[in-house]
Amino acid sequence: MAVSACGGETQMQAPPPPQVAVTAVKKEAVELTTVLAGRTVAVESAEVRPQISGIIKARLFEEGDDVKEGQPLYQIEKAPYEAVVASARAALARAEGLAVAAENRKSRYANLVGSKAVSKQDYDDAVAGAKQVVADVAAARATLDSALIELERTTIAAPIDGRIGRSFVTNGALVSAGQAQELAAINTLDPIYVDISQSSAEILRWKRLQAAGTLATDDENNLDVTLTLEDKSVYEHKGKITLTEVNVDPATGSVTLRAVFPNPDGLLLPGMFVRARVSEGVRADAMLIDQQAISRSPQGDGIVYVVKDDHTTETRIVRTDRA
User: Fold this and answer.
1) What are φ and ψ of residue 119, in 5° steps?
2) Is 194 in the same domain as 116?
């Protein structure tokens, strides 16, 4: 601003010093978190497949039902397998009858061979024949057992507890053992896994901080995880990291972390994309600086101005962990 002095001379008045806000650095315990992408994975997943060939006579479940291990799901036509069982039972009965006759013959010859009423050769043949029919009985019994197993397999049961999806076959369809298409799939949904990818460099940093005692976690190092779903809502149940994969993916340089979550309402389904906020632990000596107090140099370094005792400032470069 220009002003007129008494002598008629104009003098420039110096502007007042600028007002500068000052913030104090705080040191306190802070929970450190990181947000990572993840996908939900069923704890158990099983395909329902036939172990024999036949015609589907009935589907015994509703698609989307919760089923129990051993619960009947499909019924294959029984008649051909019942006929095989009946034939195997008849063959076993015949073999058992021949075994009784052969044992009686061997016993009679044993009494007669001493008096030379029969030759030693005939007796030896009777002994061998008795052993042969015993083996025939065992083979017939094994054939019957196999036929009974095949008959039992005409009822296709659930291999695990879980929720069953849609059926890929209908009544009247011909199915066979070893076919490419499964009949249905079952997934165990409660609890449910979330697989999370983290860079191997970050994993190393976590482990070093934990080993140094800088980051405090629980006794089992089970890190807490909070999920944000695709609709931006936060999942109400918290999970725990229970597994860190032992191999690094050479294509991505990442490691898979696995968290387990309760899923009592079945809200989480396998294959859903989620954002996982992972609690790395508590850093007891974290230095907190107001984000507005940090500027950046042309090289990208963090810069703060420190107020000294004489009210002047000096520039310092700082390394920030996270905002």
Assistant:
1) -75, 160
2) no
Distance CA 140, CA 137 (A): 5
Tell me: do 192 and 273 sit in the same domain: yes
Identify which of 23, 148, 29, 13 has the alpha carbon closest to the alpha carbon of residue 83. Answer: 148
Residue at 196 is within a domain: yes
Q: In b/e form, how buried is each residue of 117-154, taking b as 16+ CB within 10 angstroms?
A: ebeeeebeebeebbeebbebbeebeebbeebeebbebb
Q: Are residues 237 and 269 in the same domain?
A: yes
Say how many domains are in the chain: 4
**Are residues 194 and 268 located together in one domain of the fold?**
yes
Query: Are both 213 and 168 inside the same structural domain?
Result: no
Per-residue model confidence as pLDDT tens digits over 118-151:
777 776 777 787 788 888 889 999 999 999 999 9
Q: Is 135 helix (H, G, I), strand (E, B) or coil?
A: helix
- CB 270 within 8 Å of CB 281: no
Q: How far apart are CA 271 and CA 265, in angstroms?
A: 17
Q: Are residues 64 and 170 in the same domain?
A: yes
Comparing CA positions, the residue from 297, 318, 311 lying closest to residue 25 is: 318
List pLDDT tens digits, range 222-239: 678 899 999 999 999 999
Quote the domain boundaries for residue 159.
50-76+154-181
- Read off the pTM: 0.69
Q: What is the pLDDT of residues 163-205, one digit of tens each?
A: 999 999 999 999 999 899 999 999 999 999 999 888 877 777 7
How many angstroms from the chain centroid is the CA of residue 310?
Answer: 62
Residue 18 covered by a domain: no
- CA dihedral sign of residues 280, 282, 285, 286: positive
